[in-house]
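Cross-check.
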Amino acid sequence: MAKKKQQDEEEQQQGKSSKFSGLGMKGLKEKAKALFLPLCIFSNVFAMLYGGYLTYMGTLGMTVESIREEKARSLLFKEEVFKDKPVVYALDPFTVNLADDDQRIVQVKVSLEMLDEDGFEEVVSMGAHARDTIVQILNGKTFNELQSIQGKLFLKDEISVALNNQLKRSFIKDIYFSRFVLQ
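Predicted model, tokenized:
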């Protein structure tokens, strides 16, 4: 009996020195189990709210500034690079065979919009070379590729990139088709 009292006193002294003095191992496990479920629920609700917030900000909450072509052009010409008014160089009209099996042709009149007089002079000096580049691009196209609006826009971009790679002092800002007839 005396030994049991002595053991109880030692356990109480050890229990007072530990952080969880009133809790035994069972009490600590029960507290952890009791806190686990609310902690899981809280973290789950927080994750759903944060995900909802990110989704909202990425879709409906995002405000996109609408910009019109006139506004974009006015902003472009305010920069020092675009001080001068653009110059348009019209190439002579030409007829090109397409890459189709059934002998289709395209008749095109192309105008190149340059940024300044230097670019105009450079394009005039390369004259036949510019026409040849456009003819090569058109020879590789089929009727179906050029029939749609998207095809014509893609063609403009392709011609612009090809000619800009050949220019040294300036670049072509835009390309216009004054006449575009597919037969």
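Strands lie at 87-90, 94-97, 105-114, 172-182. The domain at 84-182 is CATH 3.30.479.30 (Tetrahydropterin Synthase; Chain A). Passed to J.P. for a second look.
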